Hints:
Layout: H1 2-6, E1 10-13, E2 28-32, H2 37-49, E3 53-56, E4 59-63, H3 69-74, E5 78-82, E6 85-89, H4 99-104, E7 107-111, E8 114-118, H5 121-131, H6 134-156
Parallel strand pairs: 2-6
Antiparallel strand pairs: 1-2, 3-4, 3-5, 5-6, 7-8
Helix pairs in contact: 5-6
Amino acid sequence: MRSSRRAFGSVLRRRTDSFSNANLRTGDVDVCPSRTPQNLAKLAIALIELGARIRAPDSPSGLPFTCDAKLFAQMEPCNLTTRFGDFDVSFRPSGTDGYPDLRRHAVDFELGDLMVPTASLDDIIRSKQAAARPKDLAQLPTLRSLGRLAAKRKKRH
Length: 157
């Protein structure tokens, strides 16, 4: 599983009941990996380890696919299901220029013995605004409130 955890770039949203103490349930994990050939190969290996399958509405267990770096080099986005839950890969999330853009302001979160670069709150807000899906727009007021709280804390320190 170690290679699974090392394969990914910026995590946009985590499967969690809280995001910085706010109740913003997403139900999946979203990643925006680097498109280098080496990283795409690591991503494919990790997803094979996770038992990834293409998510499809009429197939609860997902559809099998050939998971390799060549496929990821040509695919955008990729909505998967794994034995741990849903897992979405987006190389260029709405409102961003992909991994290099998100990496500039990424915040590192500790995940076990790893530090995982995670999209900044400002970048998450930017992406949700650009996506403009009802579920994303509904989360914007809470995310903006979190941003204001973080800015106040930063001023105090």
